[in-house]
Design goal:
- There is one protein chain.
- This protein has helices spanning 11-24, 26-30, 34-38, 48-61, 68-79, 90-98, 103-121, 131-136, 138-148, 154-162, 175-179, 185-191, 197-213, 215-225, 230-239, 241-245, 249-254, and strands spanning 263-270, 274-276, 280-289, 294-305, 311-323, 327-335, 347-355, 358-368.
- With 371 residues, the protein is of the alpha+beta class.
Length: 371
């Protein structure tokens, strides 16, 4: 059985954390049994985020907090000992300590906090921790993130775009940026030609977030920047992935997926009309163009039966080709194994084929219990 992510926050990790914090903080050095502060009786029942929160909370309690700069120095040193995934609890320590102060002290400590977040993001990531600053100090924080675009570290430059994503998964919501993404554009404009794919992917994901609330604004940006460079074209394609699945007309036209009025789906079939949960459904399509059409985007859409006996459609990209007065044949399969991200239910399902946003044939099949 695969190891759960939370199991990386185990006793060995906590023991090492105890050793490191004791060498860095005078308060921790005086504590006789640090391990019990972390691994209380409920430790095994805690999920990943709860374990991370416990680690950060206890570490903060072992650091002198009256002097924010000195506390941040200890936190920055700690971040050098725990990088990547195991250090993801550390940036939040800076945020939690900062917002424990009154507003006057917060104002005086803002630059210190930003400097500390730059430091620790190079060892882990500050994309979650920065968001409380965007909410409470939007002007200063967005200005700070814009300055991060010029940093030598790709991790800091990525923080600029990833930290202000309006819909960053598992993160604090940025309601104002959902309503008005205008403060984000200068950052994306600065980073869209970044040398690092790591950074450019973040730009694309930010654009994709914006498209969910303001598709026309996002497409305006894409149309203005289309074909400037290969890197920007990659960003645009990745950013439009949701709009393409939604068959957004402007998004389809952006990639020359014209209306397929000259396309005929002359065959779309499945290998079996009944299959069990856990099996794969194999399907085939034959597509013919009556005249030169150019680029086509072929998708298959599955209407999954939900527990409430309603259907929920998911769209999957099947093929993108240039078709020139010829017939093309496609074959693919879809697994119906149970997954953590999707539970399959026995009953009637449907699969359809869609070309350049236009739905064609729809086939019914039955999914049965595997036992």
């Amino acid at each position: 059985m695969a190891e759960l992510l939370k199991d990386q926050y185990n006793q060995d990790f906590v023991q090492l954390l105890c050793q490191k914090i004791a060498t860095l903080s005078p308060l921790a050095n005086k504590q006789k049994d640090i391990l019990t502060l972390f691994m209380q009786d409920d430790w095994e029942q805690l999920e990943l985020k709860q374990r991370m929160n416990r680690a950060g909370f206890v570490c903060l309690s072992l650091i002198p907090q009256s002097d924010f700069a000195k506390a941040c120095t200890i936190i920055k040193q700690l971040s050098k000992e725990f990088d990547a995934f195991l250090g993801m609890f550390i940036p939040q320590m800076i945020t939690d300590l900062f917002f424990s102060y009154d507003l006057i002290k917060q104002q005086s400590c803002l630059d210190i906090a930003f400097d500390a977040l730059i430091c620790v993001t190079q060892n882990s990531t500050s994309e979650f921790a920065i968001r409380a600053f965007i909410v409470q100090f939007p002007t200063q924080t967005m200005s700070f993130l814009l300055s991060c675009c010029n940093h030598k570290s790709e991790h800091v430059r990525r923080l600029a775009s990833e930290g202000c994503r309006p819909r960053l998964p598992w993160a604090q919501a940025l309601t104002e940026l959902k309503h008005n993404p205008d403060p984000i554009w200068p950052i994306l404009n600065r980073l869209c030609e970044d040398d690092s794919l790591y950074v450019r992917r973040s730009v694309a994901n930010n654009l994709n977030d914006i498209s969910k609330d303001h598709p026309d604004l996002m497409l305006n940006w894409c149309e203005s920047n289309n074909h400037k460079t290969q890197d920007i074209d990659w960003i645009i394609k990745h950013a439009c992935r949701v709009l393409l699945k939604q068959a957004n007309i402007r998004a389809l036209q952006l990639f020359d997926y014209s209306n397929p009025k000259h396309i005929a789906v002359i065959d779309f079939s499945i290998d079996q009309t009944t299959l069990s949960i856990g099996e794969k459904l194999t399907f085939n399509a034959t597509i013919k163009s009556k005249k030169p059409l150019g680029k086509i985007r072929v998708e298959y859409c599955i209407d999954y039966l939900k527990a409430n006996n309603k259907h929920n459609q998911k769209v999957f990209n099947w093929s993108e080709k240039t078709i020139e007065c010829k017939t093309i044949q496609l074959k693919a399969s879809q697994s119906f194994a149970q997954m953590s991200t999707r539970t399959h239910h026995a009953g009637t399902h449907f699969i359809s084929i869609r070309v350049n946003g236009v739905m064609h044939q729809r086939v019914e099949f039955e999914l049965t219990d595997s036992f």
